[in-house]
Amino acid sequence: MAGTKSDYIPALNRRWLTPLYDPLMRTVMREEVFKRQLIELASPQPGEQVLDLGCGTGTLTLMLQRAQPKAQVTGLDADQMVLKIAHQKAEREQISTIRWDWGLADRLQYADGAYDLVVSSMMIHHLTPETKRRAFGEVFRVLKPGGRFHIADFGPPHDRLMRWVVVWMAHFEQTADNFKGQIPTYLSDAGFEQVVETRCLRSVFGPLSFYQALRSSPAQTGQARLQGHG
């Protein structure tokens, strides 16, 4: 997913590798482990509108719907091939409640304040720094006041082993600013508050960080100001 229909980066960087994406994520990245943690941190609630931004083949999207059957979940991606795979997976699991949309992260098709929760897993590092900033601005726009944004993606290294891996991985795709810890800055610049790295994990491709950010409601902003003057 990236800035235009023609220049997005497919799963694994090459379209012919797309069929290998799910097996690789399952065996090498242990995606069930970190995606369960992402869902635990995001905590979707009954009746919430939930967007999986850059849903890929739909693994996280389906996990979100299973974790909270009473939420309305939408999966969005710029790659028609992976969306077709996501559709097929949902059909096999007989889950028909998910909405699957084609779209771009930095030009979301949704109305202002359409979602309570936006999650994104291993998509942000595909975007250029400029597209990341635009995408975060769009997420801020489509979130309701009080809405949450949860991300699991490459982040800064916290130990010597991960620092060594980062030296090699920083040359691939658009990962350099992720590894430099720039994601919280981009989120804050987009208007988000309470931006924190909540958790970090090791992976064979580099450190994974979990971020959460809040689009504060007027009441929350006023309370924060009062506490600041207290």
Structural account:
- The protein contains nine helices and seven strands; from the N terminus they run H-H-E-H-E-H-E-E-H-E-H-H-H-E-E-H.
- It has helices at residues 21-27, 31-42, 59-67, 80-92, 129-142, 160-169, 176-179, 183-189, 218-229, and strands at residues 49-53, 72-77, 99-102, 115-121, 143-154, 193-201, 208-214.
- The chain is globular and about 45 Å long.
- With 230 residues, it is an alpha/beta fold.
- It has a seven-stranded mixed β-sheet with strand order 3-2-1-4-5-7-6, sandwiched between helices.
- It has a single domain, classed as Rossmann fold (3-Layer(aba) Sandwich), CATH 3.40.50.
- Helix 3 (59-67) links the parallel strand 1 (49-53) and strand 2.
Please estimate the helix content: 25-40%
**In angstroms, what separates the terminal alpha carbons?**
44 Å
| Overall CATH class | Alpha Beta
Strand percentage lies at 15-25%
Task: Describe the strand arrangement of the main beta sheet, using strand numbers.
Answer: 3-2-1-4-5-7-6
User: How many domains, as an integer?
Assistant: 1
Q: Indicate the structural class.
A: alpha/beta
> What's the name of the CATH homologous superfamily?
Vaccinia Virus protein VP39
CATH topology: Rossmann fold
The total count of strands amounts to 7
The residue-averaged pLDDT reads 86
What composes the largest sheet?
Answer: 7 strands, mixed
Question: Strand-and-helix sequence, N→C?
Answer: HHEHEHEEHEHHHEEH
CATH architecture, please? Answer: 3-Layer(aba) Sandwich
Rg (CA only):
17 Å
pLDDT < 50 runs, ≥5 residues? 1-7
Q: What is the general shape?
A: globular
Number of helices: 9
